[in-house]
Each structure stands twice: as C-alpha cells, then as structure tokens.
Specification:
With 336 residues, the chain is an alpha/beta fold. The protein is 49% helix and 12% strand.
Amino acid sequence: MTTALNKIAVIGGGSWGTALALAAARAGREVILWARDAETVGAINSSRQNPKYLPGITWEEHIVATTSLEQAVTGADALLLVTPAQTTRTMTEAISPFLKPKAPIVLCAKGIEQATGQMLSQIIKDLAPQAVPAALSGPSFAHDVARGLPTAITIAAEDGAVADQLSAALASSSFRPYATDDLIGVQIGGALKNVLAIACGAAVGYGLGASAQAALTARGFAELTRLGMAMNAKSETLTGLSGLGDLVLTCSSTQSRNFAFGLKIGQGRTAEELVAPGQKLAEGAHSAKIAVSLAEQHGVDMPIAKAVSLIVAGKIELSQALSDLMTRPLKRESHP
C-alpha cells in the first residue's frame, strides 16, 4: 500500500522517541528527530546511538537529529509527539506555526492533562486546528522496539482512513500497527493503565505476592473498562492492544516506569521524593487525580485509582489504602 506520509518528524529524543524514529525508518520513511539536548542530537548524527537514553544500542538506519523545532516540523507529512503528556500544551503551541495543513500529530505519551482534565487530543484540536490528532499506544517497551523485536500497537484517529494511512506508514516486519477510529478509547487505556501499574508495583514492593498482583490487574481492568465505556470508548479497544494488552505488560514488569514507581512506594519510598526533579517520569502519578475526577463526573466507581491518587498526594499510607480496598463491601463480580 502506498502512502503520502513519507517524511516523519519525531518530537522527543528520549528512549521512546528514538525507538519510534527507528521504527519509522525501518518502515522506509524519511525521519527527522527533534531533541532538546544537543549532546543527544550530536550522538545520533555522529554515531547512530543515543547513549543517554538507549545505552548499548547502535543502529544502521538513517535518522537526522536536530535541536530546531522549525527544521524538524517544516514539511513533515506527520508528527510523532513523544514528549511527556503534561507538556503537550506547550509543545503543541511551539510546533503549530510550522505544521503542514492536515498533518497528523500522533500522541505517543499516555496521560490526561492534569491542570484541565482534558484529553491530549482535545489540546491539539484547540491549539492546532489545522492538524489531525491521532494516538499511538499499546504494549511496547522502548528497548524492545529499538532492538527491532516484534511489537504490535494501536494507532487511532477519528477518521479511520487517517489511522489506516499512519499504520501503513509505520508498519515493518517487526513493528505492526493496528488501526482504529476510537481515539478516546486508546487514550483512556493508555492513561489509566499507568495509574493501575502503580498500584500493582506497590503491592509487589509491599510483599503481597503474585495473587494480589493478578487480582489488582484484573480489578483494575474492570475500572478502566467502566470509565472507558462511560466516555464512549469501544469495548474492542479496551480489550485490545491499547487497553488490556498494555495493562498486562505495564502491571507486570520493572521496565515500566509506573510499575517501578509503585514498587518503590511499596518498599517504603514516598511519592514526594519519587516525583522530585531528576527522577524518572511516571505519567500515572500525574494522571491518577484527574482519572478519579473523571470517574466522579461520569458516576463510575474506581477504588484502585482513587487509592493511588491518595497515596501519590501523600494523604494516605499504603497500608491503610490496602486495608480499605480489602474491606470494601462484598458484591457480585458482574451486574445484570
């Protein structure tokens, strides 16, 4: 299948941004990557490495790196926005003047804007109306993608034809995108699984065992599904790669920053020190409060997400949160 999306700009030079740039290059696209850090740009251009974020990986693919947003964005047929979720507003404002009309902006961070409660796609609609918001999500770790290991993800856009076009532009023998028009569902799955992964990590760090971890994953998926359906997500999206698939991966591996964040809380660290400047970013710590707010707006019960929100805010100890969860009134697992 041919595609007009030949030039791909990747905005963000961290591990995930670099990995996605490599995926696009392997799909035969012309790739330019923007990074804030001149040292990272220099390493990518001179040695085809990103030692700061992907140590030990060298690639054959050709990627041009730059510190100039104008150079990266101008003329790009599509953009992969791979900067932290809470910077989406700032980054969209910065790239908007250079965008080609109707160019897709693919959201590759997983979160909800903490200050406003807006979905990230709505920020793009508001600040870059000439662009087409899309999202990429699914069970994927940057090192796996960078090494060319088999990975399947979901790409969403409200216009299914745009999602199909993006999938065709990024597909290769090791990177398989599945297209959908459920933009809300993909974003909800990505944001909520990070919150729930913190809960699973905390349970493991606290020494509660594999049974508790599995139970939290399953009950967490029930919460994710309830909120997703209340926000008009499609059930097949929530049970697919960007929902259940990503949740299972993120709730079971220390490669997940959110699981690792929860693990440290379970081992006695405080959320305050873990979100301090210089610490690895765990998007779920920012999304938890707004996820609970959305649940309240839609009349949805999300006790696990609420517990994570209270722990991150320092309003409750982990031991108390676990006790509260285990002593909730008994009820049937499903409702007629």
